[in-house]
Specification:
This is t-SNARE coiled-coil homology domain-containing protein. This protein is mainly alpha-helical. It has a domain of 32 residues. The chain is 92% helix and 0% strand. The longest helix is centred in the middle third of the chain and has 72 residues.
């Protein structure tokens, strides 16, 4: 092989390595964004679970108040 051919192959290999390195950086960036989004989704899911618990407590409180009101109203039956 002539020196020029070897040099051309080395340059081609270098270019391929550069493309691979760029692709790896891009994939890493995307993976980090996906990770951030997953954490965001987890936080929203946690907040939703907390709100469901609060809604359940509020519903139970309203149910107790309705029962108390019914008891009070029964006292006025004629």
């Amino acid at each position: 092989m002539a020196f020029d051919e070897i040099l051309a192959l080395v340059h081609a290999a270098h270019d391929m390595i550069q493309h691979i390195a760029t692709a790896i950086e891009e994939q890493s960036t995307v993976a980090n964004k996906i990770n951030q989004n997953i954490h965001g989704i987890k936080d929203i899911a946690d907040q939703s679970a907390a709100h469901v618990g609060q809604s359940t407590e509020a519903t139970n409180a309203l149910s107790r108040l309705a029962e108390q009101l019914r008891s009070e109203m029964n006292r006025f039956n004629v």
